[in-house]
Amino acid sequence: MIQILSGIQNTSAALTAEQTRLDVISENIANAHTTHGADGKPYQRQVVVFDTALQQAMNGDGSMQMAPIQVARVEKDSSPPIHIYDPGNPDADASGMVAMPNVDIQEEMADLISASRTFEANLAVVKNARSMAMETLAIGKH
Amino acid sequence: MIEALFNQPNYLTAKKALDAVVLREGAIANNIANLETPGYKRVDLAPSFETELERATASRDPQQISALQPTLAVDTTAVPGSRDGNTVHLENELMQMNQNAMTHALETQLVSGMLSRMQMAITGKD
Q1: Testing the interface with A: which of B15, B34, B111, B112 to mutate, by most A Cβ within 10 A?
Q2: Nearest C-alpha of chain A: how many angstroms from B59?
Q3: What is the pLDDT of residues A17-65, one digit of tens each?
Q4: A residues 44-63 closer than 8 Å to B (CB)
Q5: What is the residue-wise DSSP string for A90-130?
Q6: Chain A positions in Cβ-Cβ contact with residue B34 (cut-off 8 Å)
Q7: Which of A22, A61, A63 is the mutation pick for testing B, counting most B CBs within 10 A?
Q8: pLDDT at B102 exceeding the cut of 90
Q9: Phi, psi at residue B47, to the nearest 5°?
């Protein structure tokens, strides 16, 4: 296929990866108070792990061969749950302590901003590539 | 013969510069896409290309200009901004991208202008 918009495949892969990250962050925020998950334990915060760049090989024509950007896996944050004193809670133990999920709302919000900024940056690339392609197509017109 | 029309050094230089700008757009798109990739090193146009193009243009030799090929290389001057070794800085990339878009607009206009002037010389009308 002709490449009118150069480098756009990786941009769309990055958009998908950022979308996954946004999904995981929203899941974390939604479950910030889930003390009793399906396994009976408090919800564990999830983290998106991006694949490491292993390939940065040169092609013959001078372009770069990039490994596709992708989410390697979604891991569970193994840090311990936060214990708060709430004897009225049905999940409280004998001493009135409740194990709350290890989700820090402030941290999630900061992550959310970072992910949406990256998403926006990739959209800006698409917009830019498109206007450049339009300029190229207009060569010779007057 | 007819090739001579399109073998003027200025026209060839503008074409090569346009090739380089498009290649660079791809590199910047890649850098921004890899903003979160651990260990990614930003790529850019090989720094030698600009000097080589300048030298070839100064020689006014169409063959020398045509033979030039813009290439990409890992930017060795970039420093990692975080501990994961990634050397992409978003604000820098966005600035470079905009600068690249402006250069692209300039060069497409240059090429367009050269073509329309040629047409004017042939037909006598604008």
Answers
A1: B34
A2: 24
A3: 899 999 999 999 999 988 888 888 889 899 988 876 655 555 545 555 5
A4: 50-53, 56, 58, 61-63
A5: TT--TTSEEEE-S--HHHHHHHHHHHHHHHHHHHHHHHHHH
A6: 10, 14, 53, 66, 69
A7: A63
A8: yes
A9: -60, -20
Q: What is the pLDDT of residue B21?
A: 92
Q: Where are the domains of chain B?
A: 2-123
CB A5 within 8 A of CB A133: yes
pLDDT recorded at residue A27: 93
β strands within chain A, DSSP E: 46-50, 56-58, 64-66, 71-76, 82-85, 97-100
pLDDT of residue B65 exceeding 80, the answer is yes
φ, ψ for residue B110, nearest 5 deg:
-60, -50
pLDDT of the residue at A107 = 92
Query: To which residue do tokens 């003390």 refer?
Result: A35
Question: pLDDT digit string (tens) for A114-124?
Answer: 999 999 999 99
User: Chain A contact for B15, CB < 8 A?
Assistant: no
* Spatial separation of the C-alpha atoms in residues B118 and B22, rounded to whole Å: 24
Nearest to B25 among A62, A132, A138 (CB): A132
Radius of gyration, alpha carbons of chain A: 22
When pLDDT is cut at 50, 70 and 90, the band that residue A67 belongs to is low
Start-to-end CA span in chain B (Å)? 24
Q: In a 3-state reduction of DSSP, which class is residue A63?
A: coil
B42-52 pLDDT per residue, tens: 889 988 888 88
